User: What shape does this take?
Amino acid sequence: MKIYVDTDSCICSGACVLEAPELFDQDDDGLVKLLQPEPPAQLYDAARRALSACPAAVIQIVED
Ligand code: SF4
Assistant: This one.
């Protein structure tokens, strides 16, 4: 799995961090920071939850 985020379109909701704090953080302005672009398998479900929760649809996941 690979995760991509379009930071320019992030609206700083923080939903991704709530769903997957191991994978996402926010900078001082609230913009998403992707912590693990290639997460371990045990975090795949969390990554998918974050994708579903993002209100701006700026998270993309490419499954292997
Ligand atoms: S859930 Fe989406 S819009 Fe909200 S901080 Fe994360 S990437 Fe940005």
Residues 2-62 form a domain with the Alpha-Beta Plaits fold (CATH 3.30.70.20). The pocket of iron/sulfur cluster is lined by residues 5, 10-16, 24, 26, 32, 54-56, 58-59 (CB under 6 Å). The two ends are 5 Å apart (CA to CA).
